[in-house]
Structures are given as structure tokens and as C-alpha cells.
Specification:
Largest sheet: 10 strands, mixed
Structural class: alpha+beta
Oligomer: single chain
Radius of gyration: 28 Å
Shape: globular
Number of strands: 31
Distance between the termini: 51 Å
Strand content: 15-25%
CATH superfamily of the largest domain: Spore Coat Polysaccharide Biosynthesis Protein SpsA, Chain A
Number of helices: 18
Number of domains: 3
């Protein structure tokens, strides 16, 4: 009653505005949403629009609150006040979304739109905030995300401008800007560096070039590298060059020059500069140029990502490879197969090749012997593959490449992956992937399927838990599983009655955790109480979509080089909730591609390909029991609620295993509408403390996620381009 009276009083004095269940002006209107940076919807997708007159708000700070339905999760709401700046809000997973806004002048009329037809709003309200409170909250957000430039930003206009940019970067795609370089005079190297360069030799192989401009770029790159002290041999054919041609050089590399590719003047120099005694492969980024010489679609690649390489040749170009390693990788390759594909895939998988001559050469090259005890060739590790996060090549391409060409290249890569798996001794099955040019590797299951314990922490909310368990029981085709419910002091009679009904189901076990809520401790307790060789952590607000979800998780979990496996999770309306975790963005970590449409391809197709990620969410996470225990489980002392799954995955990765995210495991995650608020003083204090633990433990202020790219945005989760290339 008091709150309602206070709002009425604020409305009277022009410091509040509220409307409930507003009727739209138009439910289906072609209305592109435009910001100062870019246009969100070039295709003018249908929107819902409202118009409000006689708003009567004074200038100042306000809290915008939007109550919306689940079907609008991930949509963009645009606020267009008369006489003040336009604001945009991504409607999140909570029923009520909030955003601080600032009006520079009086607002008499207000237009609101959401980029979805037939959208409904339960409530829209604007409540006045004190300047000190608003500035403090805005500064805190910018500081948490590392975006507070300096204490000199004091005016409301300055702070709000930076705040707007930070928020809108998660909504608007920026336009790519190619960075032209002026390389100036030849650099001077010291004697130590000169000695290193004298020990390296590059054999440049090139087919006939049909474009003088592109050929000239190679000439300039070779000339630049030679002036830097590198030895570069250049020949106009692609035949296999023996390492014996390397003469007295200890480290000999080869590079295939492609037609229709323009190389940056320092490209060869940059790749050779990354070489040390352990290096086998060096690769860099590239972009595309059209017939008008306009640059577009930069391919900003992750660091060494073997899982992604099995799905698509993300390395592509440019790259160099150790000649001795290359010879060994293709030693028994059947005639007619791609030697370039084979060498790259051997780096990801290893292979069973060994010859006396090549083995002898490998033994003589410092740091580059990758043989294992049985004479097989081991896959390369992160130290042996270097990635230069810069665009060093420009590929000529039409804006809309021919689908037939993409399909042809994809079929060739699928054939190469199949052969590489056979050479590595794997029984995995290769099929067409989710996108043209992509493949899918289905890893083998043993004849006797291992048991799986699916651990589900919960407290009351039986309707949510029941939907989760029924989806697992009715949709899962993998037969050998058990559901382990970890109940945390449920107190509702309906919950107890539901548990009693479950007692007759021998596939369900109930554990009681009668202590204060601690997500980490609950999972650790459940793992200690169970015995299956594979463990799946599953939130109670998830719901199975793909019947083969558990098969796919187990296939990945049984691979000895793999640690944690994560799933493609969708909000209730199909939008992406989780597609891997990028560590370091938004302050600590963020869910890759959050709020993207469920059928989107993602940046460079990464929403449709299995790949290595630094971390995945524990809302659905599979791991071998032995891996869980060896990593020490979740940190129940310092990370009881937040980021415990990220911390766990990073510990697993630090042990030498690779974590995997796969789009072939799909579930709904009804997050937000089923959980409480995190904005009480106690929860905020706990969240800040756990944030600090992660920052200090993993050095997140300087951390660069190997599954991401430093030129992509650090402010949000949409894989947008960062400021350096826009």
C-alpha cells in the first residue's frame, strides 16, 4: 500500500510513469531498429509497437522496468522518448527486466517497440532515481566489465554515453574495418634474435598465379621477410620438397601459397617470428575482399582447437608447418588424397605412421619429436601450435559464394576427416554436419554401455522438477542411466508426496542435503554417494529436446583426452541460453551467443559445430567420475553459488584435458523464470566476493580465452567485433 502511494505521488510530481498490460498501437509493423552505431534488423523483421501520450516525466535518472512473457526472451525493446536519447534493452530471462535510463530533457510522449510480432507486456514503468544512486550503479557495471575509463568521467551525460555504448554493443553488430598497416623501415634485431632467424628456413610453394596483384603481395611478403633476416625459398609448384633441401637450418617449414589470396606485407615475417624449438604449426587470421576491394567477413579464429577442426577447416589460411613433421604425417597417405588436409588433421588426431627415415629426422629436430612408445604419431598440444591473432591474408570472394562450391569443399573435408580417423585407429563415424561444408564425428560407444548418474539438485518447485525428470525418462534413448535427486531442505507437502511416488522407480535415487544451499557442496556430496563411471550434472529447470542427448555426452566423455562436455541449451522460446562459456568477457565469464535465435549459425558457423571451450555450464555437464575427483570437484568453500562450474572446467583444462561443447546435445533451460532475484544486499555481497575469487585465482584481468579472440568484444557474449576492428 505504501509503495503504491509513493508511486502515485511520484507520478503527480512528474517523477514516475506506469502502465499495465498496454494495448499495442500495432502488433505487426516493419520497423528496423536503429542505433547510433548500426542497424539491428536490415531485413525489417516484424515488430510490435506501443505509443504513450501525456507521459509528463522530468529530466533525470529513471529505472525502466519491463514485465514480459517467456516468448519475448532475447528480443530487443527500444525506448524512444521525445526530446531525449533513444535507449535499447535486451529482454532477458527474468520476468521483470530492468535498465537505468537518463533523460536529458522533459519527456511528454513515449514510443516503445519490441522486435517481435504479437508481443505482450505485463507492465512498463519508469521510476525516478537519485543521481548519486544511478551514477553509482552505472559506474559499478562499467567497473565490473573493465569499461570505466577514468575518474575524470563525472557528468551524467558522459557516464550515460559510455553506459549506452556498453549495453548497445551486445545488441548491434558493428561494421568491420580493415586495418591498413605502414611497415616502415626494416627493423633492427639483436645478435640473439639474428641467430634464431638464421636457424629457420621457409620453403614457399606456389602454383601458377592468375592475378598479378595477388602475386605481387607474395613478392612483397617474401622481400619483407628476407630483409628481416629470414631465409625464404620460393618455387612455383606444389610438389613435395624434401627436408634435405633445408641444408644447415635446424628448423625447416613449408607454406602453400593460394591463388586468389593477398598476403599482408609482414605475414611471412609474423608467422616465422612465432617459431621456437617446439613449434610445428603456425596459423593466422584472414578476411575477404570483393571485386571492389572492400574488406568483409573477418575470420577471427580461436587458438588451437582440435575439436573444431574435425568439424570444419577453421585454420584455412595462412599457415606454415614443420617440413619434417609434415613428411611424417603424410608418409603412408594414399595417392590422390589432400596432403595439406592430412597434415592438419594428423595434428588434431595423431596417426599410426612410422618410417625409419622420417623417424630418424624427427629425432634430430629439437623439440619436434611427437612419437609415442608404440611408434604412433601423437596429436599436437597447445605449445606446438601457435596462432597469430591478426588478419595476415585477404581472400578474394564474392559476397554470396556459390553454395555448390561450399558443398564440394565440405565433401572433400568430410572425406579427409574420415581418412584421418582411420589413420589414427579410430572407429568414429563421419557424416555431414549441420551446415554446408561442415562435418560431424560420432565417436564410438563400447558394446557394454557404461552406467551414468544424472545428478539433479533441487528444492521444492515440483512442477519444474517433474517436467525435467519426465523429459529425461521419456525422451532419453540411452538405456543405462540413473537419476539422483539431491534435495536441499524441501518443505512443501506436494514435494514430499512426489518423492513418495518416485520410490517405486528403481531408476531414481533420492539424497537429502540438509544444510544451507551450496550448489558446489551438493554436487560434490552426490558424486561421493554414487558410483557410475560417467556423471552428468543437470539443473532441475532443464528439459530434454534431443533423444540422443545422453548418447552424445557419453561418446564424448569416454574419449581419454576429453574432460567436461557441455550442451546447447535453449530458453523456453528457443533462443540460445548456452553454447559454451567464454572466460574473461563481461568481467568473469559469459555464455557464448546468449539470446541468439535457436537456428542461428553464429560467428563463423560456431553455433553449429562441436568445439573446444575453456568452460561449459553445469546446467548440463558430463564428465568421467575419475576426472571429477582428480580435479577436486567444485569449490564449496569459496564458490558456493556462482562460477563454480567455470572454475571446475578451468581446473580440468589445466590438468591437460580438453573441454568440449557440442550442438548435438540440446535441452531447454528455463532459467530466470524459475529462479529468484540476485539483487538483495547479501546476494550482491556474495556475488562480488566470488567474482573477486575468480579474478584473482585465474588472473582474469589479463586472461585471453584460447577459444575466443582478443579482437572480438569483451563486453558481451555475442561474438561481435571489438573496437579495434570497427
Amino acid at each position: 500500500m505504501k509503495a503504491a502511494f509513493a508511486r502515485l505521488l511520484l507520478r503527480i510530481v512528474g517523477r514516475a510513469y506506469e502502465v499495465r498490460r498496454p494495448e499495442p498501437l500495432c502488433r505487426k509493423i516493419q520497423h528496423p531498429i536503429v542505433s547510433n552505431q548500426a542497424t539491428v534488423s536490415a531485413d525489417d523483421r516484424l515488430s510490435t509497437k506501443w505509443y504513450f501520450a501525456s507521459v509528463g516525466l522530468k529530466a533525470g535518472w529513471y529505472m525502466l522496468e519491463i514485465e514480459h512473457a517467456q516468448d519475448s526472451i532475447g528480443c530487443v525493446l527500444t525506448l524512444l522518448p521525445t526530446g531525449s536519447e533513444t535507449s535499447h534493452l535486451r529482454l532477458g530471462s527474468k520476468k521483470i527486466c530492468k535498465r537505468i535510463v537518463w533523460f536529458s530533457g522533459k519527456v511528454n510522449e513515449l514510443a516503445v517497440s519490441v522486435d517481435q510480432p504479437d508481443c505482450t507486456l505485463g507492465r512498463l514503468s519508469l521510476i525516478a532515481l537519485s543521481s548519486s544512486f544511478a551514477m553509482s550503479r552505472v559506474r559499478q557495471r562499467l567497473e565490473n566489465r573493465g569499461n570505466l575509463a577514468s575518474e575524470s568521467i563525472e557528468t551524467a551525460a558522459d557516464v550515460y554515453k559510455r553506459y549506452q555504448v556498453n549495453l548497445h554493443d551486445s545488441i548491434f553488430k558493428k561494421t568491420y574495418r580493415y586495418l591498413e598497416r605502414d611497415f616502415g623501415p626494416v627493423c633492427i634485431v639483436d645478435s640473439v634474435e639474428a641467430t634464431i632467424r638464421a636457424s629457420v628456413r621457409l620453403q614457399l610453394l606456389q602454383a601458377d598465379v592468375d592475378d598479378a596483384v595477388y602475386c605481387h603481395s607474395v613478392e612483397r611478403a617474401v622481400d619483407f621477410a628476407r630483409k628481416q633476416g629470414w631465409t625464404v625459398d620460393w618455387q612455383y609448384d606444389t610438389k613435395l620438397v624434401s627436408e634435405e633441401a633445408g641444408g644447415c637450418h635446424r628448423l625447416v617449414y613449408r607454406m602453400l601459397v593460394h591463388n586468389g589470396v593477398r598476403y599482408r606485407e609482414d605475414s611471412i615475417h609474423q608467422m616465422l617470428s612465432a617459431v621456437d624449438d617446439t613449434t610445428v604449426i603456425v596459423y593466422a587470421d584472414h578476411d575477404h575482399v570483393d571485386d571492389a576491394d572492400q574488406h568483409f567477413d573477418p575470420v577471427l579464429k580461436p587458438d588451437w582447437n582440435p575439436e573444431l577442426l574435425l568439424n570444419v577447416n577453421y585454420v584455412d589460411l595462412p599457415w606454415i608447418i614443420s617440413q619434417s613433421w609434415f613428411e611424417r604425417a603424410i608418409a603412408d597417405l594414399p595417392a590422390g588424397e589432400s596432403i595439406e588436409d592430412a597434415s592438419l588433421l594428423a595434428a588434431a588426431l595423431g596417426c599410426g605412421v612410422e618410417t625409419e627415415v622420417v623417424a630418424l629426422r624427427m629425432a634430430q629436430v629439437p623439440g619436434q619429436s611427437t612419437a609415442v612408445a608404440d611408434g604412433r604419431m601423437a596429436a599436437l598440444n597447445n605449445d606446438q601450435v601457435k596462432h597469430i591473432p591478426e588478419v595476415l591474408a585477404n581472400r578474394r570472394m564474392e559476397r554470396s559464394p556459390c553454395k555448390q562450391n561450399i558443398e564440394s569443399e565440405g565433401f572433400a573435408w568430410q572425406r579427409s576427416v574420415k581418412l584421418a580417423l582411420e589413420r589414427a585407429g579410430s572407429r568414429a563415424i563421419v557424416s555431414r554436419g549441420k551446415l554446408p561444408g561442415f562435418t560431424h564425428v560420432s565417436w564410438p560407444l563400447p558394446a557394454e554401455l557404461p552406467a551414468v548418474d544424472i545428478i539433479v539438485p533441487t528444492r521444492d518447485k515440483v512442477d519444474i522438477l517433474k517436467k525435467c525428470l519426465e523429459s529425461v525418462q521419456l525422451k532419453t534413448q540411452y538405456p543405462n542411466f540413473r537419476i539422483v535427486i539431491v534435495d536441499n531442505d524441501s518443505c512443501e507437502d506436494e514435494t514430499e508426496r512426489y518423492y513418495q511416488r518416485l520410490e517405486a522407480d528403481d531408476r531414481v535415487t533420492l539424497l537429502r542435503y540438509e544444510k544451507p544451499f551450496n550448489y558446489s557442496a551438493m554436487n560434490n556430496y552426490a558424486v561421493d554417494c554414487t558410483s557410475a563411471p560417467v556423471v552428468v550434472l543437470l539443473n532441475n529447470d532443464t528439459e530434454v529436446i534431443s533423444p540422443s542427448w545422453l548418447d552424445e555426452l557419453v561418446r564424448q566423455a569416454l574419449r581419454p583426452e576429453i574432460g567436461c562436455i557441455g550442451a546447447k541449451l535453449h530458453y523456453s522460446n528457443g533462443r540460445i541460453q548456452h553454447a559454451g562459456v567464454v572466460v574473461g568477457v563481461t568481467g568473469v565469464a559469459g555464455h557464448a551467443f546468449r539470446y541468439e535465435r535457436g537456428d542461428a549459425n553464429g560467428y563463423c558457423g560456431r553455433l553449429q559445430a562441436s568445439q573446444n571451450y575453456t568452460a561449459v555450464t553445469a546446467a548440463c555437464l558430463a564428465v568421467r567420475r575419475e576426472v571429477y575427483l582428480e580435479a577436486g570437484g567444485f569449490d564449496e568453500e569459496n564458490l558456493s553459488i556462482a562460477w563454480n562450474d567455470v572454475d571446475f572446467c578451468m581446473k580440468v583444462q589445466a590438468s591437460g584435458l580438453r573441454n568440449v561443447w557440442t550442438p548435438y546435445v540440446e535441452l531447454f533451460h528455463h532459467e530466470g523464470f524459475s529462479r529468484g532475484s540476485d539483487d538483495t544486499p547479501e546476494k550482491v555481497q556474495r556475488m562480488n566476493a566470488e567474482r573477486q575469487v575468480m579474478i584473482e585465482r585465474w588472473g582474469l584481468r589479463e586472461f585471453s580465452d584460447p577459444a575466443y579472440h582478443p579482437l572480438l568484444t569483451q563486453d558481451n557474449e555475442n561474438f561481435g567485433l571489438g573496437n579495434a576492428v570497427t
